[in-house]
Structures are given as C-alpha cells and as structure tokens.
Amino acid sequence: MQQANFKTSVDLAAAVSEGDRAALAAALNLLDDQRASVRSKAAELLAQLQLTQEFPDKHLVGITGPPGAGKSTLCAALISVWRKRGLRVGVLAVDPSSPISGGAFLGDRLRMQTSYEDDGVFVRSLSSRGQFGGLSAEVWPMSVVMLAGFDIVLIETVGVGQREADIARLCDTTCYVAQPGSGDSVQFLKAGILEVPHILVVNKEDMGDVARRTLAELRAALNREHPDGDWEVPVLPTSATKNAGVETLADVIHQHHNTLKAQQKLVPRRRRYQTYWIHKRLQEEFGSFGIEQLGGEQLLLTQLEENEVDLLQHYESLRVHLNKS
Amino acid sequence: MSQDTAKRDRPWLMRTYSGHSSAQASNQLYRTNLSRGQTGLSVAFDLPTQTGYDSDHPLARGEVGKVGVPINHIGDMEALFDQIPLDQMNTSMTINATAPWLLALYVAVAERQGVDPSTLQGTTQNDVLKEYLSRGTYIYPPAPSVRLTTDLIAYTVANIPKWNPTNVCSYHLQEAGATPTQELAYALSTAIAILDAVKASGQVSQDCFHDVFGRISFFVNAGIRFVEETCKLRAFGRMWDELAQQRYGIENPKQRRFRYGVQVNSLGLTESQPENNVQRIVLEMLAVTLSKSSRARAIQLPAWNEALGLPRPWDQQWALRMQQVLALETDLLEYGDLFEGSHVVERKVQELISGAREEMSRVESQGGLVACIETGYVKSELVRSHTLRMRNIESGELQIIGVNCFQETAESPLTAGEESGIMKVDKKAEEEQIASLRSFRLNREHSRVEQALELLRTAATNGNNIMPPSIECARAGVTTGEWSEVLREVFGEYRAPTGIDITPLSESESEALVIVRERVRNTGKELGRPLRLLIGKPGLDGHSNGAEQIAVKARDAGFEIVYEGIRLTPAQIARAAQEEGVHLIGLSILSGSHMELIDDIFIELKNIGAADIPVVIGGIIPEEDAEHLLQNGLKAVFTPKDMDMNSIMDAMVTIIRQAHGLETST
User: Residue B620 in contact with residue B307, Cβ under 8 Å?
Assistant: First the structure.
C-alpha cells in the first residue's frame, strides 16, 4: 500500500532516515512482501539505506525468553526508561503463528506504548510464519530499516533454541529473560542449547524466594565470560510490574553497547551478521540452486565478508545477477 | 378475594434499567415509570460516568448520555432524584469502578434532601472483577479495585445497614459466554475473593463479619433454557448456603440466604424479527420466578427492541407490564415451591453443583479469582465457551428462531414507524451537559474542592476507608473526572488480558471455514504477504464479546490479527493500523457513538497518510446510520443480524481485494 507516496527508493530511504512514520510503515510493508517483482525494490531500498551510514551510535537490542517470563511488560518498562532519556525506540515483536490456518494474534502493542500519541515509539509485529527453526528472513532487513529511523531497535521473540541463535546473530546486545521457578533456563544453559546471552535477566523479582533461587542458580550455571570475550555476563533481577531494576538494566544494555564500540567490535560484528542474513535471504528467494550458482555457500560467505564497502549493494547485485541467469 | 390476597407472596421489586441524555430527562422518565407502578429505580449511567471521565473529556466524545445518564457532580445527582424522596426509594445503581463515588453523591443528595443517610436503601453493583472479564468498565488494577470494593462494603455495613454494597454479577459472565456451570463457579469465586478481602482488610470486627456476609447479593442472568436456569438458581442457593456455613461459619439462616436480582438475558435477543424477543423475555422471567425457594428479589426486564437501539418509554412500559401480569394476574404467588421433590430438577441441580465445584477448585488452586483474571485464565475459558456457542449457531445445532431458521417474515408494523422503533438521544444533550458542567465548575468554592481532593488522595495512599473523603468531595462539588483522576494517579490504570489466544477448536473446522481460509491465503499471496486485520474497539464501550469472536474467527481463517482490547482512541487505532501495515480495519461499537467515532477515525487516518486502508464496522447500528456511514466511505456495516461469521470473513476478503484492485466492486 502506502509506498505509492514515495516515488523512488531514494525518496523512501530519505524519508525513513528522517523518521517519517508513513515512510517507515511503507518500507516495512515493502520488506515483508514476498512477491518476486517487489523483492528488487526492497533490495534497492536496503542498498540506499546502507549508503547513508552505518549507525554505530544506534543500538539493536534483542529480548528473548520463554513464554510467561514477562518479556512484554519488561520491554514496556525499558521503552519508558529510554523515552525518558530522550531516545527514540522502534520495536519488532515476533509472535508464533498457527501451522494450520497461518493465522496469528500479534503483539502486545499497547503494553509497549508509553503514551497514546508518542512519535518516539513505533511497533511492528511479525508472525513467525512457519519458521519454527528461527526468525523469518524479513526480520533482518526490517531491523536495518528501523535502525535508520530510531536510536534503539528492540526485537522481542519468544522461545528457546534455534530462534535465539538467530536473534543473537541479529542484535548487538541480546538479553535473555528467565522465568523464576522454572529450571528450564538453567538446564538449557548447561546443555548449551541456550546460546549465551550478553545479559541474563530474572524478571518477576517480586516473586521473592523463588526469584532469588533462580537468580542464584543462573549465576552458578553461567560461565560469566561471554564467548565473544571482554564482557562479563551480568545476571540482573528486575520486576517490570513494580518497575524495579529496569533503570539498571537499561544502563547495562547501554554499557554493553559502549563496550562494543570501544573495542571496535560493533560495526564489524554487524557486518558479519549481515552476511549470515544475506545468505539466508538469498537462500529463501533463490533456493540452494541459486546459492550454488553464486559459487556455493562457502565462497559466497567469504566474498560477502571481504566486501568492506557496500555490503547491501553487493546483495542487490547478487540478486540482479541471479534474476538474469 | 381478600383471603386470596392475604395468602399471596409479596411480589418482587420491579425495575426498569434506564437513564439517558441528562439528569433532568432521566428524572422525568423515572417519575413516569414510578407513576406506572414501578416499585424501585435502576439507574443506568453513561460510559464516561462509569469509567471516571467528565463529560468534556476527549474520551467522552460521542458517549455522553448515550447508554445512560451522565453524572458529573452533586448538581446532576440532585437533579436526577428531584422530587423523589430518597428515604422512600429503593435505588439500584449499575456502577462499578466509580461505585464509591456515586454512592458518595447519593449520600450527599440525601443530606441535602434532609434524609438521614443511615436509612437509605438500594444497591451499588460494585463488582469490578467481572468488568475485567466482560463489560469492561474497570479503571484501576485488580488489587486497588478490590480495595475500593472492600471500603464501600465496610462503610455501608457500619453506616447504611440496609444498603446492598455489592451485587456479585454472574449476569455479565453469561453475556461473555459462560455456561451455567461457569456462571456458578466464577460468581461464587468472585464472592469468595471479595469476602476474603473484607476479612483481610481488618475493617470489620470478627463478630460483625456475618453482617457483611448477609449483605452480599447477586445479580444473575436468566437465559432462554429456562428449566436449566431454574436449576442453576437452586444450585446457587445451595452452594451459597454451604459456603456460608463451611467457609465463613455463618449461623443465622437469614444471612445465609442467596439474595439476587435479575436482568434477563440480552445476549439472546435478536435484531431480526425482534417481536420474538417478547416471548423470550417472558420465558426467561419464568426461570427466576417459578420456584419460590429460589425466586428473585428484584427483576428488571430488557425491552424487546434492545438489539435495535435505545428503547422508548412505551417499550419500557411493555417490559414492566410483563412483570405485572405475571405477579398480579396469575396465581404464581399463591403457591409454595413448585419443584420440591422433583427428581428431574434435583438431578440437574446436582450435576450443576458438582461441575461448579470442580471449576471452583481449579480457580482456587491457581491462586483464586483475582490471580485467574490477571493470568487471563478465566477470560480464555469464557472466550472458548462463547466461541463454541457461536459455532453451534453457525452449524444450526443451536436453533435461534428468525436467525438461523424460520427467517422468512412478514413486514413488522412495530419497526415500520418513522423512528424505526427506537429512541434517538437528542444530539444537543452532550453539548448542553458540557455547558452545564463548565458553569458548575466556575461556581464552586475552589479551596474546598482542593482540600477535599487532598483528603481523598491521602486516604487512597495510606489505606484509610475511601468513603468519608469521597462524601466530602461530593459535598464540595468535586467532579467525577476529578475524583477518578486522583485515584488514577495513586493506583495507576490497567488493561485486562483479552483472552482471545485460545487454541483453535476442532469444531470450528467447517467446510465454509476451509473455503474462506483458502481465499484468505490466496489473496495474501497475491498481495505479497499474509492478510492483516486490525480489530479496534474505539470509545469507552467495553462490550468486547463481538470483537473477541471476530478476532478468534479471523485468526482461524488465516488472518494475522492485531487486537488490543477495549477503550482505544481513534488516533491510537489509526496509528496502530499504519504501524502494523494492516490491510483492513474492523471496528466494533455498541454504545451508539459510532457516528462520531467513525468520523474521527477517518480524520486520523487521513492526517497520518493512511486513508487508503479500508474500514468496516460491526455493532448495533441503526439502518439509517449505516447508509450514512457507507456513503462517507465506510466499506461495510455488520449488525447482530449477520450471525454467519464465515460470510463476514468472506466479505472482508472481498473488500481487501477491491481496495487493491484485484476485484472491481459490482
């Protein structure tokens, strides 16, 4: 729909970067569109956005964890802290969809809005659309678009396992929210099913002893050094409903961002992740056959990683190439 | 003749749930109704009053005086009871989140009339818990809401001993889809939650607790399955008595009596062939009157044309006459209990009791009713039951005369008149109410208002009983919005779980659904992404059953659904539609404020550059309004006549296809 108002991808990209809500909505619709005819426009838009800048001062934050851990409420509390600090927040909330009908109930939008008419918050919900193994490939380009328009992009997903691996490859900082009293998180961590997050949160601190026990167990189970190095994984208690510990969590999230920047890791990591998603998206669009035509997965990834200038332009040229062949 | 009269039982209280436009207009109506033999009053408040907003609040736009009377301050309350001496009146007020405030105003008006408040008689509904499950006029989170309920109870038991401080409502649970078993279980669990809270508050001494118990009354629904409903009420009485003795140790049998008032079912009233509602209402009334041992204390009947719009005085008179004929003409009140010794009735009662006990222990094991509201457990159970009911209507298993069978009808003379058989609220009512409110605000003693609000804030914060400072607020000329706002600041606001996220019912896999699902999927493919639907409830109307059922059905048909619950502003709805990239907006409005709200939504959509998203509406929309809305760009109007939800889904797909040029409209 609405993209008709923005004649070219240059116009659309410019409006998105200015934080124009209608433009952002149109861009997200465009990136969500599965029609082959529209995919080129989507790739063009991405290429345009990358030209502008790499947004090192902006922050991609992932919040994940089992259902019922209070993620939405925690996200709302975080958003409210960020808004008070003058930061604009874009949210991508991923919900499961029904395997039979494809239908889904989306999101908890209202809980995530600090006020009724706040231009500084934009929420787009996504259904998982059958991607049980992980996030669907639209999430990545959508996060890029949102990053252009907001200071913080928050991605919320439910689940344990492959989906976290995906979210860890998408976000600068990943927070895992554990449910007090459930030993699952501890078991998953120990078994290595759960990829180590940058920050572990035990929400519902107000549950008292149960929460304290889970906190202690997680602290004990965790090898505190993050595999990425130079970051000691904190285990933080919060109570989103009582608004306790949320300021601290926001501080720690910010601190992780600064650490990444100081260690010159932020941009290179994003680029590395982008190669993963470009590969995933190409695979989705052109299949294994397409990847083979580009010389196979290994060669493709290497080439993408070596391109230090314009990764998303590169992506578009690969698409053009495949569409011609 | 005189002998017979002596033997007869006294009839129940006869009321008509009414109020509209303004305090003056409602007062006129009340005095007319009383002169026609009505024996009590049942006040309907408008939605802003029920949800704690003054008439000039932006959220009140289009809602003032629509479903009830607007009461902003003591001046309005005084006008409402003008020439109605409160010491001789028994007044029932359907008020919940703002119940302490409306009772405070009632007390202050009594003082002005020179009536001793301790002699007042009547009822405040004051059951906020069911508002989270149905009806939706809650404001604060459950914990402070229970506290306000508790304060009102403790206050009246000590100071207005003949007042019924709370009417635990199973009525709205049935409207939300509850089966008789669920009605029993959740209503009794509500009573437990309230009684336990009163006990825990320490406001009532141990030896006075039986007085509290004795004042708890119920507000019950009676549906068309009137034999089962009779049994339900017998079950209620028995379970209540058992609860009294076993859980609370109440000894006095009088205090253990299950006292209840009734409004018979509105859910089952139909828009098509509305005259059939008369028989429905009469049969439903039998359910709560036939058996002496479980007879209602007070009855209010809906008018036959409620599903069409606001009833006129004549429609209300007809409803009252039904009661009078049954109570005064027939021999019903000359006999003892008609069902005593009936094995059939006894078996059914036992079945209901054991089912209700099971569900009550499930609730208890999950931490009680309040916890089950917060987790969404009860709401989801109700949505599931209601979904089943709708499926049974669709499949024809549940027959509704004139709706899914015997649809052919001759033209009805009842709805043929110029006003199409309903009353129109004077459009100027809102303007006049706002003007009078503003002049009232200018002419009060400001320092006294400030002081009273400060007292209120202190009590809210430190836990003192809320009634005394509320009564002072009433005397001082505080407004409904001001009173509620102080408590909003202290307690915060709440959004209840929507309960729609139920697993699809296997019963819902009808052939029609499979066909529409295919169409949803294919259209999604043609448009590049799955079809997205935003379901919005703008305004203050909290009757969300319809919206929930559409949401569940649309999910099962393959739509991606954005539904954020009740009480959204047009701006919120427009923005959500844009942010979420939906293909269609479906609105649900039952309060009669559709004209204003739809206008506002079109304006908001235009402002944000999203005017291309098609909009449809479902609700109680008179035909004349529907035509007007369709001319203004609305794509479709669905009313209670459109019972087949698969057809609604199909129509929505067509509208989306047309909006994207995949089909041309014919």
Answer: yes
